[in-house]
Specification:
Blueprint lengths: L5 E2 L9 H12 L4 E5 L8 E7 L2 E7 L5 E5 L14 E3 L3 E3 L6 E3 L4 E3 L18 E7 L2 E5 L7 H13 L14 E10 L3 H9 L4 H4 L1 H6 L9 H4 L4 E2 L28 E7 L3 E6 L2 E11 L2 E10 L1 H5 L5 H21 L13 E2 L6 H12 L4
Antiparallel strand pairs: 1-18, 2-11, 3-4, 3-6, 4-5, 5-10, 7-8, 8-9, 10-11, 12-17, 13-14, 14-15, 15-16, 16-17
Helix pairs in contact: 3-8
The structure holds FE2/S2 (inorganic) cluster (FES) and fe (iii) ion (FE).
Organism: Lentzea tibetensis
GO molecular function, one term: iron ion binding
Protein name: Aromatic ring-hydroxylating dioxygenase subunit alpha
């Protein structure tokens, strides 16, 4: 590693609506996008709507128990079918405009005077289906006609960081229960959030609680990018909690060698997973505008921890503080992205050089779009 500096992306990449539109089209609408926790939709008729790129996507539990995803658009005259963020319908989705009605599997099942319209094929005019895959207890959706390989893009990110996909098994993420969910409405471009997650140069400055628990983070060479080996808890630390006090029992299937360690995985483009011995912290980003990103963070615990009503607040508090510290920093940068001082971007110090790889990846995906 040399002592040289390399440049960041120019400021306009964080403010320009045309670049954001290109990112929506070529990144969020083409890649696998982690949308919804399956357990949030336990029963047939439960649904949730999420923003994926420029589209509203409706994810619903159908009668046979499977999850389906559709574009949230009525095929008649294009009314938005569900305006609520989440809810339950009894048997079907009915458009509030002219009452076209769609089964939970998307098929058009009724419309006023449909019998007098023999040309309306009920499958053809069913809801437009979106690819969906379930993994780690989440529904991942892809708007592309032909989705990229889930194995390469999603599993690959885990293998790159943990050495193998099996290394995740001990955490049993799909079987854990959401003990707490906090949604952060961050007034910053999604890339500022990714870049921040990728470096720990800031850890000593803004994360006093985290660096207490994970002392190696104070050196700046850790966080998402470097902790494939697992960051070791400090010697006096009992658990991944706000004051380093006792956490819960280690997750049942977790190997001993992963006890007292913290691992982090980034799955491009919008997921960050942090693994600690007794819980998993799972972030999903929803980029809404060049300067606004919704981040939904789930704290996942063993079923019995949540069912028995044990107090998760001390472990939630640690990463909640980290999130607030990080998102404050991102919000501090966002307005300055439009400054002439940042027209040609800033610099990456050696411990941040790997962020340059993320920048090239973004530029490559956008192709000639900018
Ligand atoms: Fe939905 Fe007419 S727009 S029924
Ligand atoms: Fe941070």
């Amino acid at each position: 590693m040399t002592g040289s500096l390399i440049s960041t992306l120019p400021g306009r990449y964080y403010t320009d609506p045309a670049i954001f539109a290109a990112e929506q089209e070529r990144i969020f609408e083409e890649m696998w996008f982690c949308a919804v926790r399956g357990a949030d939709l336990p029963n047939p008729g439960d649904f949730r709507t999420v923003q994926v790129g420029r589209e509203s996507v409706l994810v619903a539990r159908s009668r046979d128990g499977s999850l389906n995803a559709f574009l949230n658009v009525c095929r008649h005259r294009g009314a938005r079918l569900c305006v609520e963020e989440a809810g339950t319908v009894k048997r079907a989705f009915q458009c509030p405009y002219h009452a076209w009605t769609y089964a939970l599997d998307g098929k058009l099942i009724a419309a006023p005077n449909l019998t007098s319209m023999p040309d309306v094929d009920r499958v053809e005019y069913g809801l437009s289906r979106v690819h969906l895959r379930e993994w780690l207890g989440y529904a991942w959706v892809c708007l592309a006609d032909t989705p990229p390989s889930f194995e390469t893009d999603v599993f690959g990110a885990v293998v790159e960081r943990l050495g193998s996909l099996d290394a995740l098994d001990g955490y049993d993420v799909g079987e854990l229960t959401v003990g707490r969910r906090i949604a952060y409405d961050v007034k910053a471009n999604w890339k500022l959030i990714v870049e921040n997650f990728m470096e720990c140069y800031h850890c000593a400055t803004i994360h006093p609680e985290l660096t207490e628990v994970l002392p190696e983070f104070a050196d700046g060479y850790a966080a998402q990018y470097y902790v494939g080996h697992g960051a070791e808890f400090g010697s006096g630390i009992k658990g991944f909690t706000v004051d380093g006090g006792e956490g819960f029992e280690k997750l049942a299937a977790l190997e001993d060698e992963r006890d007292r360690k913290y691992y982090a995985i980034t799955v491009r483009p919008q997921v960050f997973v942090n693994l600690v011995p007794d819980h998993v912290i799972f972030h999903r980003m929803f980029p809404l505008a060049p300067d606004r990103t919704l981040v939904e963070c789930d704290w996942l615990y063993a079923k019995d921890v949540v069912a028995s009503g044990r107090d998760v607040s001390r472990s939630v508090e640690l990463f909640h503080r980290v999130n607030e510290q990080d998102f404050d920093a991102c919000e501090r940068c966002q307005p300055a992205m439009a400054s002439r001082a940042y027209a040609r971007g800033g610099v990456l110090v050696p411990s941040e050089h790997h962020i340059g790889g993320f920048h090239s990846w973004v530029v490559d995906r956008l192709g000639s779009a900018d």
